[in-house]
Amino acid sequence: MNNILRTAGVLAVVSASVLTGVSAAQAAPACSTARVCLYDNYWFTGTSRSFGWVTYNVGVDANDKGSSLVVGPAADPASPYVYFYVDSNFVGHNVVFRAGNASNDLRGLYMTSTRNWDDEITSVWG
Fold it and tell me: Is 26 helix (H, G, I), strand (E, B) or coil?
């Protein structure tokens, strides 16, 4: 009986991975509490940088280079949202993510009908 339940559990995980197109190797990596992890490439690869939930400017090395991201757990459960902005000091277009969420490819997230979020993030507010 235990073997049947274990097999059913494995099949459920494999089925979910196939349906979502995400394998265990491609799952989002962890990011620390009240931190945002930006990756230069899609699928959480390339150079990664970690920032606090309040970052006026991600700096020259990370500005407009994020292609995937992970939002860590919230330090305060009453404030679980993080906003990403295209300009310094929380100005311009923004997109919101909930704590614990991620995007493996920011090209699929649009701020306007012709402009996506790939290589656009400059400041973070949460």
Answer: helix
